[in-house]
Amino acid sequence: MESNNVQRDTFYKLLSQVKDRVSGLNKEIKELKRENLKLKSDLEKIQKEQNDIFSDISESDRIAMKHQVKSLIEKIENHVEG
């Protein structure tokens, strides 16, 4: 009978520890979800503020830049092949 009491006490002690751990993990999950939402919000804010490097360049300047890049690539390829 004494053995049953010891086992029962041990069981309830371990059960209490498991409940405490689960409760702690649930709190941690809530905190992480809040932090995740804040980080997502911050990221969206940063993305809205961010400009594409080409957005401030006119179409003709983009075309000129594209030709310059193509020309540089051709020069590099010719140098490597040559």
Helix-strand layout with pairing:
Blueprint: H1 2-49, H2 59-81
What does this structure look like?
- There is one protein chain.
- This protein is an all-alpha fold.
- It folds into two domains: 1-50; 56-82.
- The protein is built from two helices and no strands.
- The protein is elongated and about 95 Å long.
- The termini are far apart.
The end-to-end distance, rounded to whole angstroms, is 94 Å
Characterize the main sheet. none
User: Which radius of gyration do the C-alpha atoms yield?
Assistant: 32 Å
Q: For the residues shown, what is the average pLDDT?
A: 91
Our count of domains comes out at 2
Count of separate DSSP helical elements: 2
The dominant shape is elongated
Low-confidence stretches: none
Task: Summarize the helix and strand pattern as letters.
Answer: HH
Task: State the share of residues found in helices, binned by percent.
Answer: over 70%
Count all strands and give the number: 0
In short:
The protein has 82 residues and is mostly helical.
What distinguishing features does this structure have?
mainly alpha, 82 residues, 87% helix, 2 domains
